[in-house]
Amino acid sequence: MAVKVRRPARLVAEIVTVVIAGIVAFPLYWMVLSAFKPAGEIQSAHPKPWTFAPSLDSFRRVLTVSGFGRFFLNSLAVAVVVVLLSLVLSFLSAVALTRFRFRGRGMLLVMILVAQMVPVEALTIPLFFLMRSVGGAVPAFGLNELGSLVLVHLAFSLPFAIWMLRGFVAAVPAELEEAATLDGASRMRFTWQILFPLVAPGLVAVSVLAFIHAWNDFLFAKTFIISKTENQTLPQAILVFFKPEDTDWGAVMASSTLMTIPVLVFFVLVQRRLVGGTAGAVKG
Amino acid sequence: MKLRSVLPAVATLALLAACAPTQSGPAASGGNQTDGTLRVWLFDEANRAPKEAAVKEAITEFEANHAGVKVDVQWVPVEGRADKFSGAFNDPSNAPDVAEFGNTDVSSYAQTGALSDLTKDITNWSDGKDLLPSVLDTAKANGKIYGIPWYTGIRALYYRTDVFAELGLKPPTTLAELTDDARKIREKKPDLYGIATGGKYTYAMLPFIWANGGDLAKQDNGKWTSTVDSAQAKAGVTAYANLIKDDICPPAACANLTGTQSVTAFAGGKAGMVIGGDFNRKAVEKGAVKGKYAIMPIPGTTPGSVAPAFAGGNLLGVFGASQRHGLAVQFAELLAGIKYQEKMYAAMGNLPTLASVQKKLAASDPTLKAFVDTLSAGTKFVPSTPAWSKIDSQNVLPTAVQQIATGGKDANAALADAAAAMNKNFG
Amino acid sequence: MAAVRSATVRRDGRAALLYLLPAGILLGALLVYPIYQLVVISLYDYGQPQAAGAAPLVFLGLDNYVNLLADVQFWTVLGKTVGFAAACVIGSLVVGTALAVLASRVRAVPRTLLFLAALGAWATPAIAGSYVWLFLFDTDFGLVNEVLSGIGFTGMEHHSWTFGTFGTFGLVAAEVIWCSFPFVMVTMYAGISGVPKETLEAAALDGASVWRTTRSVILPAVRPLLTIATVQSIIWDFKVFTQIYVMTNGGGIAGRNLILNVYAYQQAFAGQEYGLGSAIGVVMTLLLLSITGLYVRSQRRSAAWL
């Protein structure tokens, strides 16, 4: 940046930066490393930060446990559906909240802000009983089903998503819409064909956050999926290996690695846009 | 615009829709389908593999005899069972068909109305007449039977014969000697826990209370009152909490140990002693201590006496909302029948609940002696009221033990709190 | 916001309603209605038999709250929750902001490395992160004890990090900060890079010191962002559940590492007291709303981003 920094000072700052980056990344390195260590080296009283005999044993153990692949797909399905739906819904709401004028708009904005502050974990109890009732009418969205998880995560990621996209939509000049209207484009067409692509960075940020939210969930999956083993998600799969006094650390690290990879890939792919997106949202 | 008029309308509707929390419908009635997936919950154990193998065999047999039926087993950790079962009770339509549960939970589970009354099924079951009456009693609430007794859980003292011989120790004849021995073991062999036991191992603590003449609660005119703050109970709990000290089983490692974990530690050669169940025998036998341990009844306070043990046992219950009631009962009967009781005995060392099987096996297996002796010396039970499950799942007693062991509170304060919490649940 | 006031914007409530309806229905059903239900349940004796429909409902009024407020453990847990969350919020803000400043003063390569590492921490699912940290700090197999005892702190051999009340909270807080500072860093970095070059040059020409430039030029420019980062951190760190639940095995020894969220869950789902659990949930919601509300109000400039 423009702040003038003298050269030796900058060099020191850069060294510090790299060291800090190393520290921050270290737990991840340790996770992946431990996942690849052979059995004898993991549960060792003198752990070493390297291995000369990488082994896939831990991964094999994880993947052969019945259902790990299934759990993975379950988590993925929930997260992807949540991302797609929250993109569409939050985009529509953001457009309405920025480009239409109507009474009650300000109040709605405040409500959306407040909604982000509601501790959703506290809602586990009523949501559990709500989903029980929903299941009576529409079994696919009831307890024990992935649909129930999609619904709650969608609801929880919407307020923040709307809030974020609002800034992006507002940043698109109104003149553009005028021009499009003059060219004879319907409002629907303008919204989807012109506005939607223009707010892409915001959409990326929204999808990343919605994905993480759904993918990371531990509490609702634990509470909602009661007896259908085939509908469990990844966190439960990891819990299987974690038993105090008798933990299979290799398997825990391997399953953690497998769970982290999709998010990491997602993050790195959209890295630039995410940074821009978050900033854009907060500036809007 | 319209939002303003719509919102209050929606709000009013919502208010009308539910002025009170929802209750699930009148105990959803089950069905009697003869195909599909039968969902079974069984408890996870220290070294589950042999149990799993025996159950798998039963499943193979069951699936071969019932075309179109698949049995899905989910392993539930004993300590995490409360929220799991809460879920099943709250939404009967998503409950499993068959579930293993402890006899301490019978009254509370029966109260939810979610379990089937199996009295008739057991009367009509050929092996049912063979069930030990005293064991069958533990499966009853209000005179109805809510589960088929699967095995009896009696705990005794496992100790390392090699360590005792090396240090010149004699098997303890009193609880005080047990504590001394444990301390000596830890002193001479600092890499061993004197005795592996923990704050969350309530069933190991109970004999200490009972041997000291205390009890958990007393019943007057149908009303339960906690007695854990009595002098006798206090002496027992304190004696137990003294095991979870740096000179025996350091609290940093042991304060949170459960029964399963304590046995795992002993089986792995990390402890001089452990209080373990008959159902743990094979897990220990397969561990690092194979051939280097013996089992004896937990001693009482005077030499030669036996501390009253907790008369535990697990049952197989059928959920009332099961869509495959007939299949569920048949599967439970298969697992709890003569053939698989013998197999479970071979796999885990479980004490059978069928008189004929128990007689036959006890005669041929001297290692069962400690458990049979304990049984005949007299056992005790937790208060048989629905409140007990709640007291149990709220960790009332483990919290008190942990507070005493870690010095967070003294015994008087910790047990006064525990008694208050228990009385609140008794109502 | 100029766009909104432009005449081209449709004054069309019906279209707005149409656009807002899908999200509105969903939020109404899954956020507003459950909040209402949370309050309703908290007014009843709602235990296992009641929930299962095997016993009649008893309306208690405020009894659950009275019991809760009279319970010493509740106040202890509340105090610990506030302390723990405050430590996490301050930690994330300080680390995040400091690193954002650092990142704005170095060249692209080290900066990219730092951002990649931070993104990695951010991306790690809470449950995976909890286990990795537990493993690093494991009593017997952990690298941290090995390193500490290796460099002379022999007392740290077989030290249990999850035993002492403060040690355990510290470990969990470290993990929480590790995965939540990246958001602060990214946000603040965006703010710092958004300060116009000319302003800074003008300040430099006027002979302003680095400290003075930071305080008078950069800070006012990034204040709205700082508000957002703070509010988000408060919201996230008060709601931590997974880390505490997993790393302290459900609340620590004798429940001494419980925080409100986990306490409510234990009361409701393990203790079968859904009414009491809901009351805790209500208290927590009010607490969070008032903290964030106060903070937002205290930041005058925040009006700009509403």
From TrEMBL, chain A:
Keyword Ribonucleoprotein recorded: no
Stated family: Belongs to the binding-protein-dependent transport system permease family.
Keyword Glycoprotein: no
Subcellular location: Cell membrane
Residue intervals of the ABC transmembrane type-1 domain: 72-270
Topology versus the membrane: Multi-pass membrane protein
Record-annotated membrane-spanning stretches: 12-32, 71-96, 108-130, 150-173, 194-215, 249-270
This protein's UniProt keywords: Cell membrane, Membrane, Transmembrane, Transmembrane helix, Transport
Official protein name in the record: Carbohydrate ABC transporter permease
Predominant place of localization: membrane
Record-linked InterPro entries: BP-dep_ABC_trans_perm (IPR050901), MetI-like (IPR000515), MetI-like_sf (IPR035906)
PANTHER family named in the record: INNER MEMBRANE ABC TRANSPORTER PERMEASE PROTEIN YCJP, MALTOSE TRANSPORT SYSTEM PERMEASE-RELATED
Automatic annotation (TrEMBL), chain B:
Signal peptide region: 1-20
Cited PROSITE patterns: PROKAR_LIPOPROTEIN (PS51257)
Domain of life: Bacteria
Pfam families with a match to the protein in the record: SBP_bac_1 (PF01547)
SUPFAM superfamilies: Periplasmic binding protein-like II
Keywords: Signal, Transport
PANTHER family the UniProt entry points to: MALTOSE-BINDING PERIPLASMIC PROTEIN, MALTOSE_MALTODEXTRIN-BINDING PERIPLASMIC PROTEIN
Family to which the UniProt record says this protein belongs: Belongs to the bacterial solute-binding protein 1 family.
Name of the protein in its database record: Extracellular solute-binding protein
Annotated source species: Amycolatopsis albidoflavus
From TrEMBL, chain C:
Residue intervals passing through the bilayer: 16-36, 82-102, 114-136, 166-190, 276-296
Major site of localization recorded for this protein: membrane
ABC transmembrane type-1 domain span: 78-295
Keywords tagged on the record: Cell membrane, Membrane, Transmembrane, Transmembrane helix, Transport
Pfam families assigned: BPD_transp_1
Topological relation to the membrane, as annotated: Multi-pass membrane protein
Subcellular location per the Swiss-Prot or TrEMBL entry: Cell membrane
Classification via InterPro entries: MetI-like, MetI-like_sf, UgpAE/MalFG_permease
Protein family according to the UniProt entry: Belongs to the binding-protein-dependent transport system permease family.
PANTHER family (alphabetical): BLL4140 PROTEIN, DIACETYLCHITOBIOSE UPTAKE SYSTEM PERMEASE PROTEIN DASB
Name assigned to this protein: Carbohydrate ABC transporter permease
Organism: Amycolatopsis albidoflavus
The organism's taxonomic lineage, starting at the top: Bacteria, Bacillati, Actinomycetota, Actinomycetes, Pseudonocardiales
